Amino acid sequence: MPDSAAVHLGQAIRYPTIAFSDGLEDSTVFREFGLFLVNSYPLVSQKLERVVINQFSYIYKWQGKNSGLEPYILMAHQDVVPVEDSDSGWTKLAFSGALIGDTIWGRGAVDDKGSLISIMEAAEQLLQQGFQPERTIYFCFGHDEEAGGVNGARAIAEWFKSKQIRAEMVLDEGLEIIEKNYRPLKRPVALIGVGEKGYASFELSVNKPGGHSATPEKETAIDILNKALVKLHKNPMNARLTPTIRVFFKRVKPYLPLAMRFAVSNLWFLKRQFLQKMEGNKGTNAAIRTTIVTTIMNSGVKDNVIVAIAKATVNCRILPGETVDDVKAHIRKQLRDRRVKIKPYPNNFNPSDPLTSITHPSFLKIERLVKELVPEAVTAPMFVIGATDSRYFRPISNGVINFLPVIDSQGFHGLYEHRAIEDLQRMISFYSLLIQKSGEAVGPER
């Protein structure tokens, strides 16, 4: 890997391209970041056609030799989440982009400037060699993924629809190689994302006359709301094994401890105990059920005033096979209290349907590349627990994949976000191989 890759990622992190749920923090920073890409990757800027979408999102087109092949779309996003308390808790400034030893630190190193820089580095290197891909390759860099992707990825996907362009593969962030993050496994497992959970938020509110704190009623709006939230927490939606999870365990079964291998082989009578075991870990629990958690609470104006209105937001990540309406019905059934009003947020969406097939060429191609770069890794399908920009691209491709060839990333949306140079190097190699082998047909292994 050339030294420029680590330098460029550090420089990219120094642009605080922050997106809040209601928009961008500073549009000037996004303009400057766009200029940084132009100046840092001169051959990409000169030789690839660039389309600007809604001022700050970009589509790069790398024309392929064979126009009869459907293109690949490689995605990443420029924006990052904010840092709480102005770097409080960070050993290095959150937007320093500091290179310390073999690690690059700062917000965006993992989510998602690392993959954006890797794509551009791979392309610049191949262009230096005079390379032209067999099929057309598009790079799509949205600017508001952390705000829902409405003005970025969704608008980019609409551009493809308007041009009647379908893609063989759409590759975005989402899942990776796990080695230490799931301890029962005896070998690293590359989780190749074939879909993602849906998303829904609901506002729960209680409106009840307040008054002076010296003469409280037996029950206030806050009391009613708190009881509702506790009941919802104690009564989650049912756990179940989706087809994707069943295939995942079939793939990894040989590398699990004996007791787990026995359970996976005998789910017909051990499924209940198996699900109970998975419920004990927050990661595996999220893979077997729609999760519901309180994320915001609002009430009160003064310490001696009993509030009249109490509100809370619950956020839900919806398992494939269930819907936003199913979640709302579950909430209503559990609360059974007409005093608690339920209002859905406007940006809710169901899980992606259908999921990408594990026999689709896009899945098989990524699987082959993983085995080439990380031979010891087992590959298995999984759905993404969170939400990504790639959901907007399912109408134009049956081959949407969520995967990066990195191992046990740390710092998503939290403190100490960092990316090892080894991971950066592997990402660049991965994208380079994918572009170089874009014209090669792939079928199931025999």
Assess the beta-strand content as a share of residues: 15-25%
Computed Rg: 23 Å
Q: Which structural category do the helix and sheet elements fall into?
A: alpha+beta
Shape designation: globular
CATH homologous superfamily classification of the domain at 3-174 and 400-436: Zn peptidases
Largest sheet: 6 strands, mixed
How many extended strands? 20
CATH topology of the domain at 3-174 and 400-436: Aminopeptidase
Mean pLDDT: 93
What share of the residues lie within helices? Answer: 25-40%
Q: Termini, distance in Å?
A: 34 Å
Would you identify the CATH architecture of the domain at 3-174 and 400-436? 3-Layer(aba) Sandwich
Can you list the strand order of the major beta sheet? 3-4-8-5-9-19
Broad CATH class of the domain at 3-174 and 400-436:
Alpha Beta
Uncertain stretches of 5 or more adjacent residues: none
Concise summary:
With 446 residues, the chain is of the alpha+beta class.
Characterize the structure shown.
The protein has a 6-stranded mixed beta sheet, sandwiched between helices. Strands 14-16-12-17 form a 4-stranded antiparallel beta sheet. The model has no long low-confidence stretch (mean pLDDT 93). The longest helix has 16 residues. By secondary structure, it is of the alpha+beta class. The two termini are 34 Å apart. The protein has a domain of 209 residues: Aminopeptidase (3-Layer(aba) Sandwich). The protein is globular.
Features:
446 residues, Aminopeptidase, six-stranded mixed β-sheet, four-stranded antiparallel β-sheet, 13 helices, 34% helix, 22% strand
